Amino acid sequence: MRDQISWEALSFTLHVFAILVALAIVRPLMMENPPGDTYEAKSVVGQLLRWDFEIIRRAAQRHAPAAPRLLFLVIPTLAFWFSGRKLRWTDWEHGRALRVLIMIVVVMLSWSGSTADYNMFFDRLHGFDRLLLVGFCAASWYTPLAVPFAARLAYILIRESYYPIPQDDFDFRPTLELLVVFSAFTWLSLKKSFKPAHFLMAGIGMWVSYYYLPGVAKVEYGVHWSWLDNHVTNLGMGGHIRGWLSFVPDSILLPIYQTAWKLDPFLTRYVIFLELGALVMCFITPKLTRLWFLLAFSLHFGIFILSGVCFWKWMLVDLAVIFWTGKSGKWVLADMHRYKLPALLAVASVFFSAQRIWYLPQIGVSWYDTRMVQNYEFVALGESGQRYLVDPNYFAPSDMHFVQGRMCYVAPSKQTTAIYGVVGSQSIAKALDEADSPEVAEKLLRRGRYCRGGKHDARRKEYVEFITRFFRNINRHHGKRHAWLRYIGRPTHLHVHQEPHEGELLFDGQEKVVALELWQEPIVWLGDRFHHFPRIRVHSLPIPD
């Protein structure tokens, strides 16, 4: 008991608090989005450096503060250089063990940033920037001071696919933020009293905040605790309609879904237990910490098997922590659990993380899953008159938006359900679960809202700009450039494979595209079959020369 109120316990707490304070300052710089024009240049890094020098010049003339997008990384690095300290992994107690965990994340994000598909919208490879990222990744093995450079550049290159149409960054954001926490810890290690256990406490706090807040959102969504009645198996049905396990006949898959549907009460309670339990489970004992990461991995693996939504970066970190804390990292984990006072600070940091001052977890992650998907498909019209189904994966690296299939803004129409058939109304979800005929489902289709005005009009302009420029470059180059990247690139977040309809072929740059059509086909799961409503063309966009 005396150890728990000792100077060592207070010192540990103050070190973790210092990391949180530093994180509030560092995170906005590390996760700042570069302007879209950045990617028009041959070198992203070269363009950002030119802008940074211009920012500094103007700030000096105006006697105003400046926040460069890249050069801020140099300042703490120079602080180490001027202090005469060459930070090495071995400078930390258990530093070699810590390197294993961090390098797994660095390699994962560097792989994602350096091997993404060639961007046919910008028509740029950014080969120098990709090689530079690989170089920073390699340098990170020798010195932790290179990790912030690798993390920042990986973020910038991954974000390239988010222009001009924004996408969800949920699949990689917590893994990137883990390196941001480590960057703050690294720079604070100019003071030699910082230890890996301090980073681990703040890092695990960050990680579990991405689970805890979605759990809170589910509890508070609609009528409190109503999410426990949600049928999460419907998400798998939505994934199948979009193209997950498309090779499996409906006669085989539907009985599996019907069986899993009965287990939904257990599954929803498992999710709530895991997410809300994240607040405390990781800060009680080492065994509970490892157990929670195992449960988290099981959750994501189950989501992938069910729906094809693959949080592979999350799963890899979960597995890395499990094995690392059981071997070389077990002493770091033991040090983290030595005192209860810093654990209380960590719990408080997670509990209040909705303010997103130190951590940046996604909030409001909650919805109801339904049996209906307003499915969208892309059809390219070739110069010869041949029709081609364009698999949404073809739009890589910007494929996530098109795979999700929330395209109602393109041709304003009523949208009852959103991505993979989710809704915000529990009454609609229940009505679709209870629907026993196409006529009942059709009435529910009419209860949707129009996707028009405001952000929808702006998104439509982005869509037209993207599609027009994308296919003009496809036509000019007779297909996608550097297609070999897909064979060494990272796994996708959403796994789908759509099959062409009769009279269509799968498009792969066979000929010049003169127009791209968008087709909509509402599909609802009714008992032992899928009911397909009429497939209609809702938009056609000519591709100019």
State the share of residues found in helices, binned by percent: 40-55%
State the end-to-end CA separation. Answer: 77 Å
Tell me the Rg in angstroms. 25 Å
Main beta sheet strand tally, sense and closure? 6 strands, mixed
Give the helices and strands as they follow along the chain.
Answer: HHHHHHHHHHHHHHHEEEHEEHHEHHEEEE
Rounded average pLDDT:
94
How would you explain this protein's 3D organization?
The structure is a single chain. The chain has 545 residues and is an alpha+beta fold. The protein contains 20 helices and ten strands. The strands form three sheets. Strands 2, 3, 7, 8, 9 and 10 form a six-stranded mixed beta sheet that branches. β8 and β9 form a beta hairpin. α5 runs antiparallel to α6 and α8 packs antiparallel against α11. The longest helix is centred in the middle third of the chain and has 25 residues. It is globular, with a radius of gyration of 25 Å.
